[in-house]
C-alpha cells in the first residue's frame, strides 16, 4: 500500500517535477528528473539562481520533496513547502529526502546548504534567513525546527538592532530526534545525537556526544549511532 501511495504522489506531481527541473537545471540534467516533488508541494521563488545541485552525480529522484510516507501514527497536514523569496539560495550536495508535510524555506538573502544523504521526517522545517549548513548523513525526526533568525528585529533604547541572526551548523553523521528545536548560533558536531524535545541555542564543540534538554547540554560522550 505504501509503495502504491508513493507511486501516486510521484505521478500526481509529474507536472511540478518537470517544471522545477527544467526551471533550475540545464536540459541534459533536467531530463533525468533529479528533483521529484508531490502535487501537494507548494513551490515559490524557484529559479537557476535560487536552487542549486552541487554534485556531479545526478540521478533520477535523488532529491524528493513530499513524496515518501511519514512515520506511522504521526498525524498532520500532507502539504509541503519548498522555495525562497527569490533572493536566497537552497543548495543540495547530494541525495535528499523530505517526507510530506515538511518545509524548506530560504528568505532575506539566506543560504541553506545541505550535504549528501540528508533525510527529514514529516513536519520538519528549516527556516533560513541567514546561513544554515547541514552535513552528510544527517537525519531529522518529525516536528524538528531549524531557525537561524528571530523573524523580527528587536531594538534597544538607542534604536540599534541587537537580535542579529547567527548561523546554524550541523556536522556529518548527526541524528536530530523528534520535536527538537535548533535556534540561531547552534552547532552540532560530527557523530552526535540530539535527544527528543531538546531546545538548542548554542555551539557545542565535542564530537560524538548526546545532547539533551531545554536548554540543551551534553549528557553522554564517546557515543556511536547507526542509521
UniProtKB/TrEMBL annotation:
Record-level Gene Ontology MF annotations? acyltransferase activity
Pfam families in the record = Hexapep_2
What EC number(s) does the entry state?
Answer: 2.3.1.-
Q: Origin organism of this chain?
A: Bacteroides vicugnae
**Broadest EC class assigned to this enzyme:** transferase
- This chain's protein is named Acyltransferase
Q: Which PANTHER family does the entry link to?
A: SIALIC ACID SYNTHASE-RELATED
Q: Give the keywords, sorted.
A: Acyltransferase, Transferase
Amino acid at each position: 500500500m505504501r509503495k502504491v501511495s508513493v507511486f501516486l504522489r510521484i505521478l500526481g506531481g509529474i507536472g511540478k517535477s518537470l517544471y522545477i527541473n527544467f526551471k533550475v537545471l540545464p536540459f541534459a540534467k533536467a531530463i533525468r528528473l533529479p528533483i521529484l516533488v508531490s502535487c501537494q508541494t507548494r513551490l515559490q521563488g524557484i529559479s537557476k539562481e535560487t536552487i542549486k545541485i552541487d554534485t556531479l552525480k545526478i540521478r533520477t529522484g535523488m532529491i524528493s520533496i513530499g513524496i515518501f510516507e511519514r512515520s506511522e501514527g504521526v498525524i498532520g497536514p500532507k502539504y509541503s513547502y519548498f522555495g525562497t523569496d527569490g533572493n536566497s539560495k537552497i543548495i543540495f550536495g547530494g541525495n535528499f529526502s523530505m517526507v510530506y508535510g515538511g518545509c524548506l524555506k530560504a528568505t532575506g538573502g539566506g543560504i541553506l546548504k545541505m550535504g549528501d544523504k540528508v533525510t527529514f521526517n514529516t513536519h520538519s522545517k528549516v527556516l533560513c534567513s541567514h546561513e544554515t549548513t547541514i552535513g552528510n548523513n544527517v537525519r531529522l525526526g518529525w516536528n524538528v525546527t531549524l531557525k537561524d533568525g528571530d523573524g523580527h528585529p528587536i531594538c534597544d533604547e538607542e534604536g540599534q538592532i541587537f537580535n542579529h541572526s547567527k548561523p546554524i551548523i550541523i556536522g556529518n553523521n548527526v541524528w536530530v530526534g523528534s520535536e527538537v528545536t535548533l535556534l540561531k548560533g547552534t552547532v552540532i558536531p560530527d557523530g552526535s545525537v540530539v535527544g527528543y524535545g531538546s531546545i538548542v541555542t548554542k555551539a557545542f564543540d565535542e564530537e560524538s556526544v548526546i545532547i539533551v534538554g531545554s536548554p540543551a547540554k551534553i549528557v553522554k560522550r564517546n557515543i556511536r549511532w547507526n542509521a
